Structures are given as structure tokens and as C-alpha cells.
Amino acid sequence: MTKILSLCSLLVLLTCLTSLSQVKKEKYRPVYHYTPPKNWVNDPNGMVYLDGEYHLFYQYNPFGTKWGHMSWGHAVSKDLKTWKTLPLALKEFDNADGSQTMIFSGCAVVDEMNTSGLFAKGFTKGMVAMFTSHVTKDKKDIAQHQSLAYSSDKGRTWKYYAKNPVLDIGSKNFRDPNVFWYAPKNKWIVSVVVALEHKVQFYESKNLKDWKLLSEFGKMGDTSSIWECPSLQKVLTSDGLEKWVLIISSGHRQPKYVGMQYFVGDFDGTTFTPQKQKEVLYVDEGKDFYAAVPFYNRPKSQPNPIIMGWVNNWAYANEVPTETWRGGFSVPRKLSLFQEDGMYQLKQTPIISENIFTEKLTLQPNAKINAQTIILKDNLYRLVLDIKLLTSKGFALNLLKNGDEKSVLSYDVATETLSFDRTKSGKIDFSERFKSIESMKIKPKNGHLKLDIFVDKSIVEIYANDGEKVLTDIVFPTKGKGSVEIIWK
Ligand code: FRU
Prior knowledge:
By secondary structure, the protein is mainly beta. Helices cover about 5% and strands about 50% of the residues. Strand 26 and strand 27 (about 405-410) form a beta hairpin. Beta-D-fructofuranose binds near residues 104, 175 and 229.
């Protein structure tokens, strides 16, 4: 009897220790940003809406916490605010000739008119995924071409199309197809990159299977890194005009980091013509927003696109200290366009649950922030600030501050520069490339600077002046609950 009892208490103790270490390991896990229950993720893929469900597929390694075995994971949401993880959607596979195919990034569309002929006659809810089939043999990269998979049960189960690939130019760096329906000419259009040449190609098709080259766009803007994950989408301007925005994952303002840039212009069904740009336009000024693409087939009553990105940077993505899982996604962002300096620019509005603790404050020089309620929220909150600058020279807002740890968001009035400094944010030594300060120009509006700051354990998203500039960074504070303070210059 005593033996049984002591065995029981040992078991209880072991369970407690495991769950304690789990909690310790999970301290960086975001709450309102989607992360997989375990293992590695990178790009969002196949984002599409069907019958009240938003689908997020994503680059996923089912076998570990580092990049490899790329397959598509799957999660669904009714409101873009909370997500439910579903079983693996598209798995890597072996080929008869001894090579392997990984399922790289791509998109999904709803083939309502069964243009592909892949579904039963009259079926209106077929999903077709177009992805890059990345082929390796003896650990060497052999080919990248575009292939199809299709699902008749809302993305739960998939079949690979028997005559894959459907688009092949004989390149090893041809990837990330993103398809949309171009209604004026009743055809599908895909954007796909020739990555090393900094080139986007546009192809057209009537059936998703046979593709014809329409035009090319490239060697413009930021070419400091290869180009990946293109998408072309229609966006309405604040004055009611229709423009097209080409988003490309490419380089960053700071050399040797990846980031995202965009071009605003016109599209006539064949060619994309960009507006004159005085400078490179970046989607996000932080280090951790990449591979964002739009959700397709959304209700027509909300015409402007919604994008979502991978919150990480290839410079250190395989090293981030989250242990049980690696990588996650931004909150979804609705896009619109506004005009400044004679150019159309993107404005991003976050889609976020009303249940997140929100502190709204109007501040002017020398005001203090009472941080008590925020500390209690344990690095999980939204802080909405309307800052009247008056005669101030600027300020430093210390976020996630505990002892000597802090993530500092500062503004310099003279140079109209907003900076985020994570050099003292907590754990930074897992990669030499993680420590960083990023800066962006943002003009006050009628003497006010507006900041909408989302803190979710290890993700910070900052929307300045109603999303006219956005900065996303990951941070790993080691000391738990952090406070907030403002120091005026
Ligand atoms: C972008 C990317 C894509 C590729 C995928 C592989 O982050 O490099 O170009 O399809 O990730 O996981």
C-alpha cells in the first residue's frame, strides 16, 4: 500500500514538474496571435474564406522546431480573431525516381464555377491550392515548379492533381504562386517570382491548369535580397479610386535582413504599371513581418484586402528561444490607401478582439503613465496613446520594463523619427543578428502623434497615426511582468 502511495506521489510530482517546465517554456507564447501547438512555422499560405470560415494554411515542419520537411499546416477562424488548429493539410511526399517533393508557399482559391474541372459537375465549393513543388534528390535542390491540389471538403482533405506540375520554367528559384480571379476578363491570374532575378511574372489561365505568360515586373525598389511571396491586389483609395498594390517579400531598410516592400499602381489585366516612387515603400518597418499575402474570396461587401504575415526574420528565425514551437503570425490587417508626398501609400488597420485589455490615454509633455493595471496584465495588452507634443523635444516610452530590461519606443520631434530599440529587451544572445534598433519617419498630425501598441507576450506590433506606418518586432523579456513608463526629453 505505501509502495503504491509513494508511486502515486512520484507520478503527481513528475506531472507537476513537467507542467511547470511546460509553463516556463511557454512563457513567450502569444495569446491573440496564432502560433502552432508545436513545431516550426513560416509563411502563411492558402489564405481563403469559405462558408463562414477563414482558412490559414502555413509552411510547417511536422517533425521539428527548425525549418525542414515543408508541408502545409492548417488553422481556421470564424472571425479572424481566434483560431482552431486542424490536422496537417498537404504533406511532403516521395517520388518514384527517388526524389522528394516539399510543399512550399502558395495560395488557395474557391473554384466556384469549377473552371478546373477537378470537381463534380455543379459543385461550387471546391478549393484549389497552387503551391511550389520544391524537389530535392540526395539533399540537392533539383527544381521549383508550381503544382495543384484540390479539396471538396473545405480544406480538410486534399488530392494532388495527377498532371503536376502545371507551371515550370526549368528554374530552381521560381516560386510562391498567388492566384486571383480577374473578373473583367473572366480569367485567373497568378503572380510568381523568379527569386534571384528580382522579378515577378504574371500568367493567365482559364482553368488553373494551363498558364500563359502575360508580363513581367522587376528590378525596381529594394533588390538587396531575393524576391519571394508576391501578391497583386486591388485596393480602394480614401478618395474612392481603384488602385492595384503589388506586395513583395524582399529586403529591409537595414542590410542583410528580409522585409516587405510594395508598389502602388494600375493593372489592365496584362501589365502592372507602378506610380512614380520617390523612395522604397516598406509594408512594415520592424524586423519581424514577412511573407504576408491576402485572404481570397472574402465577402464582396468588404472590398479592401486583409493580409497576415509571418512574425519572424530569416536572419535568426531558426534560433528564437521558444523551444516547443517556433514562429507565429501577425494579427490580420485590413489595407487601404492614403496620399502623402504625392504618392499613394498603404494604411493598415489591425483586426483584433475587443476582449483584449485596452488602456487608452491622452498624454502631453511631462505626463506620467500609471502602470499598475498594465503590470497586472502580464505582457498582454493594447495601449492606445494620443500624444500632444506641444513644445516637447520628444519622449522615450519604455515597454516591458522590469529591472534593467526594457523595449524602448522613442520619438524625436526634430527629425520626426520613431524608433524601436530592443537591445535591452531581455534574451538577445541567441543570435548575433537579433539585437537591433529600427527607425522610421512619421510626421505628427496637428501636433499629435497617435500610437496603437499591441503587446502579446513576445510580439509587439506598433501602428502609428492610424496605421500609416507599422512596426512589428519580437522580443523575449526574461523577467515576466513588465511595466510601462514615459520619459520626456
Ligand atoms: C519565404 C520562403 C518562400 C518559400 C518558403 C519555404 O519565407 O522562402 O519563398 O516558398 O519560404 O518554406
